[in-house]
Amino acid sequence: MAHTKLTNEQINAVLKELPGWTVKDGKLHKTFKFKTFARAIGWMVSVAVQADKMDHHPDWSNTYNRVEVNLSTHELDDTISDLDTELARKMEELAG
What is the pLDDT of residues 25-75, one digit of tens each? Predict the structure, then answer.
């Protein structure tokens, strides 16, 4: 399935729906904070299963209870696409 690069207007509309998300260095960005390291890792595993099903993998890092996420679509020259917003929504859902 072909994915679509989002316009600035579309990105701004999505950001209104996704609390805490911003655009940083041309990518969707958010830092998730959890109560413990184990919860952060558990969330990452849950997201990894979903991301793998989507064949869309985040750039992320974990430090104790924080997970920093950057989303862009490599196939569209590292721009923000509908695939990134879909994964961001799934991350929010899994974070509860």
Answer: 999 999 999 999 999 999 999 999 999 999 999 999 999 999 999 999 998
Q: What is the secondary structure of 19-84 as a DSSP string?
A: TT-EEETTEEEEEEE-SSHHHHHHHHHHHHHHHHHHT---EEEEETTEEEEEE-BGGGTTB-BHHH
Q: What is the CATH number of the domain that holds 69?
A: 3.30.1360.20
Q: What is the pLDDT of residue 30?
A: 98
Q: Work out the burial of residue 25: count CB atoms within 10 Å of its CB; fewer than 13 is exposed, 13-18 middle, 19 or more buried.
A: exposed
Q: How far apart (Å, rounded) are the C-alpha atoms in residues 82 and 88?
A: 10
Q: Which domain holds residue 86?
A: 8-13+21-95
pTM of the model: 0.93
Does 1 map to a domain?
no
